[in-house]
Amino acid sequence: MKTENRPNHGVSLEKSNQPVSVPKQPPQPSQQASIPVQAASQPPRQHQQSTSSTPRQISFNVSSKYQILDVVGEGAYGVVCSALHKPSGQKVAIKKITPFERNMFCLRTLREIKLLRYFNHENIIAILDVQKPTNYELFSEVYIIQELMETDMHKVIRTQVLSDDHCQYFIYQTLRALKALHSANILHRDLKPSNLLLNANCDLKVCDFGLARSAAGNDDNFGFMTEYVATRWYRAPEIMLTFKEYTKVIDIWSVGCILAEMLSGKPLFPGKDYHHQLTLILNVLGTPSMEDYYSIKSKRAREYIRSLPFRKKIPFSQIYPHANPLALDLLEKLLTFNPARRLTAEDALKHPYLKVYHDPDDEPISPSIPEEFFDFDKRKDELTTSELKAMIYNEVMTPL
Question: In whole angstroms, how far apart are CA 99 and each of 102, 105, 152, 381?
Fold first, then answer.
């Protein structure tokens, strides 16, 4: 990838987690490294109350090759620590997942491992290793070893103003990753600032493939919406309006939302619920044209749109008066209501705003994912937790 034109200054690395102590003796493969984590180091979710500041223990049952350093992130069913790979001296990220309480977590874990193994791309987070469990009976946690990136786009946007150079370079890299994903017939489905990892050199890598799906053969979308819990603010309107067919450009809409957020430092469509989300979108884009209106296959969704008051489009130049006009032109083409008229990743890379980085010979595509790759998703309603566990175990035990 061309880097000679990258921004001449990096991003400030905002560390939101408090430091954690490092075990004096690294764990053996069958031992656990317990890391005290201050409860207050993570902001409580809105529906929870933080009632204690007492440190709790997080155990990492990993090989003695790794020295655990800091907790760098935590989610619904996993925690990520930075670690030192002692043989190479390389710092890595170790993602601990405990998926076996719910089938949904098992499915996400299976997708994540399979897809990270499949792709080898500069702008997609790489899987370096997977910790092998001692045996199937003791297999209760999954440890994925990945490249370590110092921060993510969400933290950067919240802590500093991004230059136009930064916006160009970050959007270019995001679209470069999407071109590879989409050429393999994969929809990411959960693109948002926190899923774009960054380092001080401004390198960007897309992560978190737990909601990814095949774009092929989605006549019934394999229960597409069942797990669709991606952040509403970055969700394409056709998903909420049930266009019946979801295409790769749902990810392009998310990129548009991310670009808008980079331009101003705040989300463009911070909807509180389904109706509010659509209202915010239409407040900016205006009432859909007749062509766009009839592109909505769901009669109920069309009636809902028809019931809303007429809205005039607000020019992006009015919302972002100081932005590069080329950035706003690209934004217009990414945030197009009708998915049939929205840019593809490949076309977006050719946009004049990204001219300084665009190189068609250095924007690789990926082989199409085999049809059987997502067989487990087609059968997910009939698979038991035990069957899913066996599938994950087989993936973990398969050499990279």
Answer: 6, 5, 24, 17
Q: Which residues are annotated as a binding site?
A: 96
What class, spelled out in words, does domain 33-148+380-397 have in CATH?
alpha beta
Sheet containing strand 142-147, edge to edge, reads 66-74, 78-85, 90-97, 142-147, 127-130
pTM of the model: 0.86
Pairing of strands 142-147, 127-130: antiparallel
Q: Give per-residue pLDDT as tens, 197-242.
A: 999 999 999 999 999 998 875 544 444 444 554 588 999 998 888 7
The dihedrals phi and psi of 327, each to the nearest 5 degrees, come to: -65, -40
Q: Domain 151-362: which CATH class?
A: mainly alpha
347 catalytic? Reply is: no
Where exactly are the structural domains of the chain?
A: 33-148+380-397, 151-362
Tell me the two tokens of residue 336.
Answer: 């197009």
From 190, 203, 251, 377, active-site residue: 190
339 and 257 in contact (C-beta within 8 Å)? no
